[in-house]
Specification:
It is built from 21 helices and 27 strands. With 673 residues, the protein is α/β, with parallel strands linked by helices. The protein has three domains: 12-349, Aldolase class I (TIM Barrel), CATH 3.20.20.70; 378-471 and 633-672, 3-Layer(aba) Sandwich (Rossmann fold); 474-520 and 555-626, FAD/NAD(P)-binding domain (3-Layer(bba) Sandwich). Strand 4 (56-62), helix 2 and strand 5 (100-104) form a beta-alpha-beta unit. The longest helix is centred in the first third of the chain and has 20 residues, at 136-155. Pfam families: Oxidored_FMN, Pyr_redox_2. Keywords: Flavoprotein, FMN, Iron, Iron-sulfur, Metal-binding, Oxidoreductase.
């Protein structure tokens, strides 16, 4: 029998130990590191991924000392009494023949607390705290702390450590002129700037001995001004190898970079080209990262000799059994990461526990548990959008008889509109996954089947779940019924042609999506070379940070994105992805106006008032993207008939289209019934 992914599933011999395949679960902070009893939950989280077949897991970042913590109560491994809780994780992983490394992360100027230190006293744009410049003594002590942390990790049963030298954290801050303005032996020339990283690597290797994995996370593309030169990246890679590294993992972009590196609009495998170049210059295995979310992408990168391993973090949040499904030839059953960031990175940056939009059980393995139903029920679900799909599948898995109805001829609800937006092509994958899962779990699907209270009553359901979604909110101003005025569904669902000048009323997620849709002729997400040009990534690497002048974008439409609120347009978008959406539309000349009062629409266009000044936008069309209302017309009739009814998704709360909440709500209800 042929192996479906021969390169991806091939063991990797590291000399003193062997990894069972080429999949590395990349580091991702979950927030459980700081929660009460969080390490019990973390152990279950990592155990699920080890059981699912991952070759090597890397934990979220753990600080080697107090000043390096992410936040005031951030996790650190610096004392013998810290070891016991980490042992819970390593024991859980080793039960399934898994291997796990602890990531040692000192945040430097990215620390979100007043005790931050850095090479130089330069405030980071993403933190309100200005760091203190480290003294010589602090530098030498910090090097010892990295070694101490590695030794404690070894005692805790970890198979290795990853030294975090990228993403703009402390080690990376020493390496780049952008953040290192020192004039002593730790700054100035490249040799001086690299000294801190190399001394840490030597100290760590000396502390743990030779039969222990040390991964170094090397910043290959800083994507910020005054970052690395290409020659410095290669030189450092060779020196890191000589200092005792077992593996080199790729680091792409600083957190403050104005180039997106992981959001859904980034092409799949967009950065494997730089890993390939570094790999040619060293003899130890090198790991490719970022936007590798299918076994096919991973296999292609490895088959082309661009890397020796592939790192996936969010894809293993989305599906703990990713590797096992790939090995079994069931890749079409993988719950694919759509790189939305909404429940993972956005949560972490808001000091909430991470999870996953498409997999609400991620980081809730001990809490959101699907036990076999004690008594099987006959359940009717109305609406096959994300909420209805999630509920139906989980409920059927528990043993209930589930009938899923939708008036449309296809599943997906609002996801069918989202998947059309340039840069959101990944949403196709979620609908493919649910389509397969409905069949696997035995949900009886009834499409083209609009339900009434009477039709549902004849089915004698024990429970009815209304996941009927939303209807667009109507607007109330003079001329709202003018032929120029259309709704967002007219554009995304019915593909109504619009004129060359368009005003969008409403600048929430839908407004931004429609703006992207009507200003993009073909998606650069599907063309990596064009995407690099648009964002100014210099593949020739002729300048520091691999940055060049971004390509100017043009659109055949003149578009205004308007909102009543006086706050910044797009403020409500995702914390880690909203800036990308705003930047993308600004590149295309979309004009964003806040504090707008809508006066009227007439043959001339849309009349508005901003800051007390009335003006005419001479547009051909006005698209209403002004929010939604819940669609729950069946609820009262069903309840009056004595039917047990539950509302989930947009039918429950329609403030914004929120697939994250909808899918979680569906899962939680399924676990409870």
């Amino acid at each position: 029998m042929t192996t479906p992914y021969p390169h991806l599933l091939e063991p990797l011999d590291l000399g003193f130990t062997t990894l069972k395949n080429r999949v590395l679960m990349g580091s991702m902070h979950t927030g459980l590191e700081e929660e009460k009893h969080g390490f019990d939950k973390l152990a279950a989280f990592y155990e699920a991924r080890a059981k699912g077949g991952v070759g090597l897991i890397v934990t979220g970042g753990i600080s080697p000392n107090f000043r390096g913590r992410v936040q005031p109560f951030g996790s650190e491994l610096s004392r013998p009494w810290h070891v016991a809780k980490h042992r819970k994780i390593t024991d859980a992983v080793h039960k399934h023949d898994g291997k796990i490394c602890l990531q040692i992360l000192h945040t430097g100027r990215y620390a979100y607390h007043p005790f931050a230190v850095a090479p130089s006293k330069l405030k980071a744009p993403i933190s309100p705290f200005t760091p203190k410049a480290m003294s010589e003594r602090q530098i030498l002590t910090t090097i010892k702390h990295f070694a101490r942390c590695a030794k404690l990790a070894q005692k805790a049963g970890y198979d290795g450590v990853e030294v975090m030298g990228s993403e703009g954290y402390l080690i990376n801050q020493f390496l780049c002129p952008r953040t290192n303005k020192r004039t002593d032996r730790w700054g100035g020339s490249f040799d001086n700037r690299a000294r801190f990283a190399l001394e840490i690597m030597k100290a760590v290797r000396a502390a743990v001995g030779k039969d222990f994995i040390i991964i170094y996370r090397l910043s290959m593309l800083d994507l910020v001004p005054e970052g690395h030169e290409y020659e410095e990246v290669i030189r450092l890679a060779k020196q890191i190898e000589a200092a005792g590294a077992t593996l080199i993992n790729s680091g792409i972009g600083w957190h403050e970079a104005r180039v997106p590196t992981i959001v859904t609009s980034v092409p799949r495998g967009a950065f494997s080209w730089i890993t390939a170049r570094v790999r040619e210059q060293v003899s130890i295995p090198v790991v490719a990262v970022n936007r590798i979310n299918t076994p096919e992408i991973g296999e292609e990168i490895l088959a082309k000799n661009e890397a020796d391993m592939v790192s996936m973090a969010r894809p293993l949040l989305a599906d703990a059994d990713f590797v096992a499904k790939a090995a079994a030839g069931k890749a079409d059953r993988i719950n694919t990461c759509i790189a939305c960031n909404q429940a993972c990175l956005d949560h972490v940056f808001e000091n909430k526990r991470a999870s996953c939009l498409v997999n609400p059980q991620a980081c809730y393995e001990t809490e959101l548990v699907m036990q076999p139903a004690q008594a099987a029920k006959r359940i009717g679900v109305v609406g096959a959008g994300p909420a209805g799909l999630a509920f139906a599948c989980y409920a059927a898995e528990r043993g209930h008889e589930v009938h899923l109805y939708d008036a449309s001829d296809r599943i997906g609800g609002q996801f069918n509109y989202a998947k059309q937006i340039p840069g959101k092509e990944e949403f196709h994958e979620t609908l493919r996954y649910f389509d397969k899962r409905l069949a696997d779990t035995g949900v009886q699907v009834h499409l083209n089947s609009r339900q009434t209270a009477t039709s549902l009553a004849t089915e004698a359901f024990d429970e009815v779940v209304l996941a009927t979604g939303v209807v667009p909110r109507q607007v109330d101003f003079a001329g709202a019924d003018h032929p120029k005025v259309v709704g967002y569904l007219d554009v995304l669902r019915d593909h109504k042609e619009l004129g060359p000048k368009v005003a969008l009323i409403g600048a929430g997620g839908i407004g931004f999506d429609v703006a992207e849709y009507i200003t993009t002729e073909h998606s650069p997400t599907l063309d990596a070379e064009e995407w690099n040009e648009i964002w100014g990534i210099d593949k020739a690497y002729e300048s520091r940070g691999a940055l060049t002048q971004p390509k100017a974008e043009s659109t055949s439409r003149e578009v205004w994105l308007l909102q009543r609120k006086t706050s910044k347009v797009g403020k409500g978008l995702g914390k880690t992805s909203g800036w990308v959406h705003r930047a993308t539309l600004k590149k295309k000349g979309v004009q964003m106006l806040a504090g707008v009062t809508y006066k009227k629409v007439d043959d001339q266009g849309l009349w508005i008032e901003v800051d007390g000044n009335e003006q005419l936008l001479a547009v051909d069309n006005v698209v209403i993207c002004a929010g939604q209302l819940p669609l729950r017309e069946l609820q009262d009739e069903l309840q009056q008939a004595g039917q047990s009814v539950h509302l989930i998704g947009g039918a429950d709360v329609a403030a914004e289209l929120d697939a994250k909440r909808a899918i979680r709500q569906g899962a939680e209800l399924a676990a409870a019934l």
